[in-house]
Design brief:
Elements: H1 3-23, H2 27-48, H3 52-60, E1 69-78, E2 81-87, E3 93-94, E4 97-99, H4 106-118, E5 120-132, E6 145-157, E7 165-171, H5 186-197, E8 204-205
Parallel strand pairs: 1-6, 5-8
Antiparallel strand pairs: 1-2, 1-4, 2-3, 2-7, 5-6
Helix pairs in contact: 1-2, 2-3
């Protein structure tokens, strides 16, 4: 079995345990779901060579019915070059973005990420893609994640690194710097350029 297939099964069983804990009132069922969650944590820690306490903390911090997380990314272009930010955490480059916050619409979330990570203000032109992270060639992750990519127009502001971002710059999509593929792949950047050049393209999905 491939590592990604094995990880997918662990995550799906963990989601069942999380949802079970959210809805059951039977103390015996709660004990069973808790045991299943612990087995998933042990399996993930062992298979991915991760610290068991870190994995256990990730799982126990999630409550309620298990659903995919939402990551938003802003694809903004200037004279054919794409705006990228360099993450302090790994020193690599990505489209501005991050987790969508509760209370924000998708477009509000991506514009906030654009502003906070790059210093630029913008407006959304179109939703270019709604993708399952696991199907896009990203490294394995303990959560199921949907990635929303928006084509954005820069309307103001200036490049402004911050505590999480060490650099902000524009790049030729065919000559990208080392990318943080946990966040954005080169293929995704090139696909966003196609959407930017042809606004009539329908949104990609799955």
């Amino acid at each position: 079995m491939r590592a990604r297939d094995w990880l997918d099964r662990v995550i799906r069983v963990q989601a069942i345990a999380q949802s079970g804990l959210a809805y059951t009132s039977d103390p015996y069922d709660r004990e069973r779901y808790t045991q299943i969650r612990e087995i998933c944590a042990e399996a993930l820690a062992l298979g991915a060579d991760e610290d068991i306490e870190r994995v256990r903390g990730l799982f126990t911090s999630e409550e309620g019915y298990a659903t995919p997380k939402v990551d938003v990314r802003a694809a903004a272009f200037r004279e054919g070059k794409v705006l990228l930010v360099r993450e302090r955490s790994d020193g690599l480059w990505t489209l501005p973005g991050g987790w969508a916050d509760v209370g924000d619409t998708p477009s509000q979330a991506v514009l906030k990420e654009l502003r906070e990570e790059s210093g630029f203000e913008g407006r959304v032109l179109k939703l270019a893609a709604a993708l399952d992270r696991d199907a896009q060639g990203h490294p394995p992750c303990p959560w199921r994640i949907y990635k929303l990519f928006f084509i954005c127009e820069i309307t103001g502001g200036s490049a402004s690194p911050n505590l999480e971002i060490v650099d902000v710059a524009f790049f030729d999509p065919e000559r990208l710097p080392p990318m943080s593929i946990n966040r954005t792949t080169p293929a995704q950047v090139r696909r966003m350029l196609e959407h930017y050049l042809d606004p009539g393209l329908p949104a990609d999905f799955d």
